[in-house]
Amino acid sequence: MENQSRLADKNKMLNLLAAASENLGTSLDFQSTARHSCKIFVPHLSAWSSLFIFNEDSPELKFVASHHKNHEVSTQLELFLSDQARFWAHKQEVQYSIREGRVVTVANSHSWFGERYLAHLPVIQKSEIIGLITLGSVDEFTLEDLHIAEEISKRAAAAIDNARSYLKLTSYEAKLINDKELAEKASQEKSNFLANMSHEIRSPISAILGFADLLMLPQQSEQDRLEWSQRIKHNGQHLLRLINDILNLAKVESGQFTVQNNCIDFLEFISDLEVTNRTLARDKKLDLQFNLETEIPERFGSDSTRLRQILNNLIGNAIKFTEAGHVKVQCGYIKNLGYLYFDVEDTGPGMTEKESSLLFQPFVQANTAHSKQFGGTGLGLALSLKLSQLLGGTVELVHTAPGNGSKFRAMVKPSVLSGVKYISQLKSKVSTTAEEKTFKEHELKNKKILVVDDSPDNQYLMRKILGLRGADVTLAGSGDSALDLDNISDFDVVLMDIQMPGKDGNQTTAELRKRGFTKPIIAFTANALPKDKELSLRSGCNRHVTKPVDQKELLRVLSELLTT
After folding, report:
1. Would you call the peptide bond into 59 cis, given omega within 30 degrees of 0 as the criterion?
2. What is the per-residue DSSP string for 329-355?
3. Cα(269)–Cα(429) distance, rounded to whole angstroms?
């Protein structure tokens, strides 16, 4: 009788181990392997079983799968164990089983799903405990049952480890495929951007060099020479905007961009926008309008340079893409929320839904046909959005439709002092001849100016610009040359290049201040980063003006320093 019982146990063990080997080797799918690891114990060894695996990201047991002999109860068991995984992992007998690497059996004080006894089996693979199998049984586990369960758990451990390794591999492969697709997409966007950037840079350079060649031809009319000069200036300004957009976008995205809080006179600000964009609108015979929708604070605090950059981009785009009709700029202030907004509406070609979805993405243009016709790099809107966010607002497309134009809204959140006056209508403070008047106001007769610059072309240019306005200009090709001048104290102002061989501009300025020179020194340099400005001011410069030369800005700064 005893021999028959042993034979039956042996057959039971062999059958279960055979079934385990067969079922656990059929799939490399992790979840399928986990379910099979639970099913193999039921109903011959237990009423239900569960599998917990150590999470590789943390030392916590994570519920993976379970199985109950009653199909209707299986779902309830799964939900229960999933919800109680953290509690289950901290049970004393579970912790002991994992710590010692031994099977632990307990008589359950109360039944969750019909069991009276529990058995916890550590899942061990290559001497490492990777998880835990718990069995729930109505009958007490025999030594033979536990022996069979341990053997099955060893096979389950190998299958689970293989499936987990395969899951890692497939996840890694999926990541590689995704990374490859992203890299290919980025590479394509980069190629498109570089191709477009090459066009954007070469086109104005070609125009500049071409018109410069024309200017050197003899016996050309004054009118032709003036037009060619204006075209050279226009293309140079386009190149400068392009470079500034790239640098500004890079600074914003790297977190190195800072904003100022200037006091902005709203009427002067709008007048400046109008003057800046009027010529282009007039050349295309477009009606450029500025209107108020609500009362606006007469003065407010924000970064005037960045706000002007945002709006010039939106207005410039509207004018560029509009062939007939108007461009309207509607200004308003949402008092209860503190937002200042500018709606820029045009009668241009408009966009499809697909085209508009590509807006605000750096280096991506919504309509490549338009970009070929009108130019552009796809940087302006992306930069405008990021700048507006730095000013507490946003830029958004309000509406667009093919053939029906577009409307953009730029919003910023300015600081407005209590008691400030509000204006309800626009009265321009700048006349149509504002630029001509500005030049007349900044006459430099009898002013002695020292220009320190290592570039002969820049020396020549500054001598012409300042000399035409009556200044007595002296040139020095290096900081050392400037310091060697005997009459340095006679100069009314010094224009100091920063990056020069030998003593640079900052060192030269510091030495001049040390020798007692108290007159204004202007850092006039291509070093345009905020840290460059901070360094030049710290060395003793009164102002920091960036190249290429903006004559209007330079003359304004000279006038300000020489009249104070």
Report:
1. no
2. EEEEEETTTTEEEEEEEE-S----HHH
3. 9
Show the tokens assigned to 88.
């289950």
Residues near 234 by Cβ (< 8 Å), separated by ≥ 6?
none
pLDDT for residue 191: 65
pLDDT, position 374: 39
CB within 8 Å of 293: residues ≥ 6 apart:
330, 331, 332, 343
pLDDT in tens, 470-480: 899 999 999 99
For position 429, what pLDDT does the model report?
46
The alpha helices in 254-343, defined as continuous H runs, are 266-283, 304-321
- Per-residue pLDDT at 133: 92
Which run of H or E residues covers position 495? Answer: strand 493-496
Q: Are strands 287-292 and 326-334 parallel, antiparallel or unpaired?
A: parallel
Q: What amino acid occupies position 210?
A: G
Q: Which amino acid is it at 149?
A: A
CA distance 494 to 523: 8
Instruction: Supply the DSSP symbol for 142.
Output: P
What is the CA 106 to chain-centroid distance, rounded? 57
pLDDT at 6: 47
Question: Edge-to-edge strands of the sheet including 48-54?
Answer: 61-68, 48-54, 128-137, 117-125, 104-107
Strand-pair category, 472-476 with 448-452: parallel
Between the CA of residue 563 and those of 99, 246, 434, 544, what are the distances in Å? Answer: 84, 36, 20, 18
pLDDT given at position 147: 87
Structure tokens at 408: 């953009």
Give residue 192's pLDDT.
62
In this prediction, the residues of the chain whose per-residue pLDDT falls under 50 are 1-7, 10, 366-376, 429-439, 441
